[in-house]
Amino acid sequence: xxxxxxxxxxxxxxxxxxxxxxxxxxxxxxxxxxxxxxxxxxxxxxxxxxxxxxxxxxxxxxxxxxxxxxxxxxxxxxxxxxxxxxxxxxxxxxxxxxxxxxxxxxxxxxxxxxxxxxxxxxxxxxxxxxxxxxxxxxxxxxxxxxxxxxxxxxxxxxxxxxxxxxxxxxxxxxxxxxxxxx
Length: 182
Description:
By secondary structure, the chain is of the alpha/beta class. It has helices at residues 11-19, 23-28, 38-42, 62-66, 77-88, 93-105, 114-124, 133-143, 148-161, 173-181; strands at 6-9, 33-37, 45-47, 57-59, 71-73, 108-110, 130-131. A five-stranded parallel beta sheet has the order 5-2-1-6-7. α1 (11-19) packs across α9 (148-161) and α9 (148-161) crosses α10.
């Protein structure tokens, strides 16, 4: 087991990482270990194809799990089960389980869902345990020393294939916007 912090990814952040076309690189060379809940692992994840006329492409997470770039975590015990049920009253099942596991085990949580972010902050009270797609990508692109052209291409690919654009309140919204504008 690694001594690095673990970040629980919700389905939205996972989709964005997959849409980059560089998921293996991002997950394997980050300062973090990454995990997903069993619910997220069972979701069917489809990305737009690079060719807009082509059908969506189904993503298989098995290779990332087998290579140990991504760990699947399941609920354990009554406290986690109860937290999951409580979160599920306000969130979809994937976000609810992601938050329950992150909160219970002291993991970071990576979500772009504004409601999930609000609920996590209200319960955890610790902004440093909350990540977004742009925060993960900014950190990775700096560590990987990508050129501005490579960063722009990466973000445009995520925008197109993952249908993602950060909300203006995201801590790295201006980084994302500036990188795409270059």
